[in-house]
Fold these 2 entries.
Entry 1:
Amino acid sequence: MPIRELPTKPYTDQKSGTAGLRKKVAVFQQPHYLENFLQSIFDVEASLKGKTLIIGGDGRYHNREAIYTAIAMAAGNGIAKVIVGQGGILSTPAASNLIRVHNAAGGLLFTASHNPAGPDGDFGIKFNIAGGGQAPEALTGKLYEVSRQITRYRIFEGANVDLDRRGSQQLGDTLIDVVDSVDDYARLQQSLFDFDRIRDWFKRGGRITFDAMHAVTGPYARRILVEQLGAPESSVINAMPLEDFGGGHPDPNLIYARHLHDLALSPDAPDLIAASDGDGDRNMILGRGLFISPGDSLAMLAAHLDKLPGYKGGLKGLARSMPTCRAVDVVAKALKVECFETPTGWKFFCNLLDAGRLTLCGEESFGTSSSHTREKDGLWAVLAWLNVVATTGLSVQQIASQHWARHGRHYYVRHDYDELPVASANTVVDTLRKALPALVGVTHGDWTITQADEFGYTDPVDGSVATGQGLRIVFGDAARIILRLSGTGTEGATIRLYLERYETAADKLAWTTTDALAPIAAIADKLVRINELTGRKGPSVVT
Ligand code: G16
């Protein structure tokens, strides 16, 4: 039996962030680094033994090597069956779906999401549990503890798996099933949306440009948009997945996908312009002449969800992460459904989804999804918008204008200060935290602070508590300033400052976001003092 137990020494930095363990590729290439983390999973989740495990990744540099190791270690740790995407490719929502479809005990997803790839780029791993959601914090905490004491790992030595040949192969007692990366995911989308209606919309001249950013969604978008829905081949751009994502930054936002914003403003703009990120869970939506912010996209989809075949059964609850703008809260109120405010991190939605209390949820970080899976789902959001546009006969612009006229408009922006020295980022947060108690009741311009605190969350389903989830300065319904540290970066610390302003008067609905938020930004400058405390001149990224 070529299963061997090999000695190893622990690393002390295998602490998961907002979404799994993300590090530079070079960190993952250290001897036994990946093996240690994987063995921690197999040790902590002993119940994986004898069960099915899904394995796949976003195709970035180091994906294949990591997947060979993961398969050999799955076989070394008594996994009965591994289902792996052909070529080692699975988008994050496709992997989550496969866990659900095959009733698997969990999944190993190799991705650093929207972070750049290549030898000098980032790599990452997420462990998803039965049901398809990301490991909750209690579990990632245990993984971290175990990883700091690990002394050995188990592996099937000399494993020789052909990742490119679909079908079954045997590795000792473990069955390895290499499956098409797209089939099940495409079937799922077909069950949710009105493909006939969308096909007809394309036939009548409807146009989309979808940018796969040379990342994982290329094959998914081609299959669904082009082959199944009849969009012209040219509708999917940068469709070829590349190990370094073509040297780009597959983060679909107004900075890294600026060209899509320019396209939206051009005279020949298509009806819908969209993009997804490295691992296919994020989405960006634009219409002719207009960028739809993620918080607005969530609210507008919520308002139209009853028009989509997969959601005719009615809307249960809605949810957003705390820093996400409160547009969806207004829709929830109008629809008389529960609305939850969770910490940043998709994993916080999963208990609510499992308990049947949520239908739709989203985050400001370009994430939207529904109860159909347990990850955010980039192409799902694009198909949802296509379906709404095809069904209502309205343009994206009309959908947005009607929405704002009825529900009011939440202007919203996020300022990122990347790669700060950790100490200086902490100083900003600590200084504001100390100042919070004295802020309530203070008036700035037209707005008075009604609440100033640190966000904490008690999960309504299992009672688990998450503290220290961001500082918030709230001006009633009118505005908010939020500050938190990112949990997904791999260099130094990233401060995120979120600004929101709500307006309902008809003459205040068509401002530019920059103009609308200028007074809030000025208040944030005074209260949060990021430039002053860090020596920066301004944010690195504004989205
Ligand atoms: C991950 C999480 C999201 C989170 C985002 C940003 O997304 O799944 O829930 O909103 O990171 O997190 P942070 O503000 O801590 O950097 P992804 O697409 O990177 O997996």
Entry 2:
Amino acid sequence: MRKLLVTGGAGFIGSHTCAALTDAGFSVVIIDDLSNSSADSICRIKEITGVEPFFYKADIRDRETLDRIFSEHSIDAVIHFAGLKSVAESVAEPMKYYRNNVFGTMQLIDAMENAGCKKLVFSSSATVYGDMNTPPYTEDMRVGAVNPYGQTKLMIEQMLMDLCESDTEWSVAALRYFNPVGAHKSGLLGEAPFGTPSNLVPCIADTLMGKQEYLSVYGNDYETADGTAIRDYIHIMDLAEGHIAALREYNDKYTGFRAFNLGTGCGSSVLEVIREYERASGMKIPIVFKPRRQGDAAVSYADASRAENELHWKANLGLSEMCLDSWRYVSQSNV
Ligand code: NAD
Ligand code: WQD
């Protein structure tokens, strides 16, 4: 059985991917410091799959623990989710982001080299397309960052490209996620961010659960059909499957660095998401229109054809499943 190391495997995307990996027959070793997640998700992975993942509660910057993991397990490849992801926090505390995301990745790469493990799937982001491109975004477009969080993703991608240039045994797939939402069908795993959320779907959930009086809709004067901003929302389980496709269709077959967009290729407006979530929950979502949020693009969606052609992966679930599955998790677990 192939064994994978999953950094940040207790988090939102990591936990769903670990469940999908386990169901697909991989053995999973998780390292997570639980700075933005709880050990509950490890128990939930076991409840869903019947298999308990190996779990190390540790920071990826802790080289000793990384070396110990590689010596205790025969790791075939690494999926690297661990990182901080709040845009606003990255503006307020940039060094925290460079230290965690960039230095953390450097420690991981060193430990992998030391262990002779040279297959990596890295969690990148559509944020690397910055504000100078017109959607749909293709992987060959120029990249640029508009905040320190985005800058860490770009720096890591560059570092990984240089690494692959210098040593042709490395295989790195950088997956540029668009807007992951939804939850596992079981209602056992979902998105449970610490603190006040800033992403749309967690804010909708908080409003319905009475944690927010109303949902702020940032901007209704964009040049879009209903005036609200458009994003490429992707179901978390489709995203999870994208990692398995990347391992099998890229890392197992090719070396070098390659970026892949993981999105649906379709955009939905903020009001469309709200309407769909109202349908899923059977509840009315109170909204208040507010000015545009600083730094927000009007429209963002992927050209997902590279992943379809090369990884033979494509998103199958639509906005209605995303909202139904999110609501099932939120209403069942009262997060
Ligand atoms: P998350 O916060 O739910 O998961 C990240 C996990 O990493 C958490 O469990 C956290 O405790 C852990 N972690 C953070 N720093 C660590 C460290 N130094 N050592 C060990 N563990 C650490 O976030 P997520 O939404 O699951 O995102 C996973 C990855 O995907 C991140 O790298 C993020 O930047 C990237 N990404 C997320 C989105 C999104 O919208 N959710 C979009 C694009 C890219
Ligand atoms: C979506 C739309 C908001 C909340 C962010 C990061 C990006 C990536 C994914 C990691 C926007 C609007 C939101 C609310 C609203 N993360 N909105 N009311 O901004 O596309 O991307 O998460 O890599 O880097 O920037 O996602 O969910 O925050 O916003 O009207 O209460 O919903 O203005 O138009 P975004 P989001």
